Amino acid sequence: xxxxxxxxxxxxxxxxxxxxxxxxxxxxxxxxxxxxxxxxxxxxxxxxxxxxxxxxxxxxxxxxxxxxxxxxxxxxxxxxxxxxxxxxxxxxxxxxxxxxxxxxxxxxxxxxxxxxxxxxxxxxxxxxxxxxxxxxxxxxxxxxxxxxxxxxxxxxxxxxx
Amino acid sequence: xxxxxxxxxxxxxxxxxxxxxxxxxxxxxxxxxxxxxxxxxxxxxxxxxxxxxxxxxxxxxxxxxxxxxxxxxxxxxxxxxxxxxxxxxxxxxxxxxxxxxxxxxxxxxxxxxxxxxxxxxxxxxxxxxxxxxxxxxxxxxxxxxxxxxxxxxxxxxxxxx
DNA sequence: GTAAAATATGTGCTATTGCATCTATCATGC
DNA sequence: GCATGATAGATGCAATAGCACATATTTTAC
Lengths: 161, 161
Prior knowledge:
The structure is a homodimer.
Chain A: H1 20-39, H2 46-58, H3 63-70, H4 74-86, E1 90-94, E2 102-106, H5 108-128, H6 134-160
Antiparallel strand pairs in A: 1-2
Chain A binds a DNA duplex (30 and 30 nucleotides) through helix 4.
């Protein structure tokens, strides 16, 4: 049944589900599923892994920074961080300069856990970009960055005006 | 604080948050937020809009088809459809050929609601692809399609092996 | 034909997310 | 200095998503 799906533009225009945003969304959702299955043996979910990855890249971040980088609500980031502290993967201390901020860092256990996931994640990435030339990958990254900039601009536009 | 975020590859390799998948995820999440704010005046959420869009493109689909196209669990699609039937946007009847299947179609009200959203969605899309040449857009779509194929292949690989 | 397996859908329950709100801390104005 | 406003973070609550399972229908194996 699902095999013979064909887009029939009933309205004369281009089919909505052929739009790039639709692909983008479907792609991310499916990739997230795959990430979750790849990470399950390690006891992590994608949201956890993203937090750890951010702190691997930047070392010390606040809850707000993590929320911004992983694009979740601050409340969600707060709870994710809490749970990972309980599990021993993260450590949190109040910033000396501004005690509202928390400085979250990886513990040795967190760094080790992240390292354990590397193989699975790298494998998944390799599958994802299979058959795509280096040049195409760079091109894709460039286009995605441009889209990201546009998205942020839209948000500011909305807020400012 | 969040402004001076710089990627520092503490592990010698490429920073994880610079990986295309990370951009992809962040992009989709932010775009979804923007879609939600754009659709809020119309009383729809992105999930609703996706369902309607699929049925605008294909006319008649089952719950499973909709779940597959929008990449959500079938239970989620089932409830989304139910609620939209209650709101008068969709109609559902059992398939004559196979009564397990439901044939879901847009009502006139549903088609009209979707049409009302078009301006907002088109505007958002224009903002999203602002400054991107026609050629780049086609290129992006091509690359996304390739990624999508790879993602699906990975899933089948996982299931089959 | 009948039994067993498979598929589509719906439902109960849990986990996750997002929104509103609260507290604590800092910045700005006077 | 102090009052007001702004920001970081946490928490209560509601909506959503996902998982496990149940039911109805069809297909497959015998």
